Structures are given as C-alpha cells and as structure tokens.
Task: structure prediction
Amino acid sequence: MSSPLALLQNLQRPSLFRSTVVVRRRHHRSHPTAVQPSLHFPNNALKYWDNFYRRHQGKFFKDRHYLEKDWGQYFCGDNGSSNGKKVVLEVGCGAGNTIFPLLASFPDLYIHACDLSPQAIKLVKSRADYKETQISAFVCDVTEEDLCDRLGPSSVDIVTLIFMLSAVLPSEMPKILQNIGGVLKPGGCVLLRDYAFGDFAQVKLKEKERMITENFYVRGDGTCSFYFTEDFLSNLFLGAGFFTADMSIYQKQIENHSRSITMDRYWIRGIFTKQNCGVPDSVLASK
Result:
C-alpha cells in the first residue's frame, strides 16, 4: 500500500488512480468547479456551515458511539466536586452526534455544547433527548469570543474537539487552543479526533486544485478541512501550553463497490493535558 505522502506527491501519475479516474472525469463534467479556492471560504465559515446544516439537518454525520471505547476512562467516575458530575465542553458540536451518544453512555455528565452555526444549535435543541439539566447548547465563535465569559475560568474537566479543529484556518487554531485552555481545570484534558494527512478526501481535493494553504482545502459546498500530521498537531498544542499524553494515526480501507474504488481513510487521535497535569493510569500503562 502506498503511503499517504507518496499519494500526494504523485497525483499526476495516472497509474496510481486508475480505478477512480473514470468516476472523477464524469464528476467533473457534471459538477464543474465554480470558484477558485481563496480565503473567502474560511472567512465566511458561518454562512457555509449554516447552509450545510440547513441542507442536511442532522442526517449527514453518524452518531459517534466509538468515543466510549476510545476514551471511556475519561468520562466515567466523578470529578471530586460536591455534585460529582464531570463537566464536558464540546467545541463544534454540530447537530449533536458526539454529545448525545456520550450522555447515553455516561448519563452523569454535564455537557456544554457550542458551535459557530445557529442552525446547528437549533438542531441540537430540537432533539427529544435534549435536557437542560444535562446540556447547555449555545452559539459561539471560539476564534473571537472568550469562553471564560460564558463558562468561567477553570470550570471544565474535558474538552472534546471532534472533527472541529480542521474546519478553521491554521492561523486561527492557536487562538482556539488558548481559549479552551482558559476554561480547563487543572488536570483537565482535551480529546481530539480529526482528519490526518494523506486521507482519501485530501487526495481528491488536491486533484481538484482546491487547496487554500498547505494541507488546508475548501470542499464543493464551501466548508473547509485541514489534514493534520502528528508533528504539526503536537507542536500546535505545545505552543498553547499543552502536553501530548497520547497520539496515533488510525487508518481504514473502505471499499465502494458501486463506484469500484478503494478509499484509504486516515484519522488522527490525540489526548492533551495542560502542562504539569495528570494523565489517567490506564493511558500511561498502554504506552
């Protein structure tokens, strides 16, 4: 199997993409690229994400039940406070595909859920299982608005970033990490899952010349996506005062029989703590 780097470096070699070239040529004829990549798209993210959730409602992303398996040790137990509830902040909650599976598995959590898109927050609050005793959902642009003003400093045990950080300009990412760092308690952690360098979707976007900046692309619907390397992500968090407790690349090969193509999907997972803060023993034991 070719490495993701080799795929990206050799996109002009037809032999590497023999199984997909017919499909892609057909797609280009019926869906021509209407606009060139530019900073217009990330600078107008609210418009494009609102349109996305208005169009797809809550049906585009599947509920993320794998979080219990990946990070269950972080959500179980209490936080030692008087009420015992762990407090989670989900940044970029979308239609709730992370928060509702988490509450189903860990009903003692209290979750703050924010998103740039008012349409996304509307979808979250419209769910039958949305209860204000368990969830507080609100609109927030975390590149501009101080989370401490809303939640208070050092008030959150866990921050989840699930396919969120990739949606913003790389130059905006440090602001987000500094922002969430302000609301994390001592010993708190950030749990991240996102797109990794070499992912099939990145290869497709590069072929279509949709790159805005290095490893940052605009999709056909105007939403954007960054593809992370381990070095980039660890240095990004280090610069914001976080220690990398664990990080890994997850790869899965998916067959699309109707289109006769094989998709090599790459995702990155990371656990980050404020420097000089603790890490669960179960994570250290797995190293």
Summary: The chain has twelve helices and ten strands. Confidence is low (pLDDT under 50) at residues 11-35, 277-287.
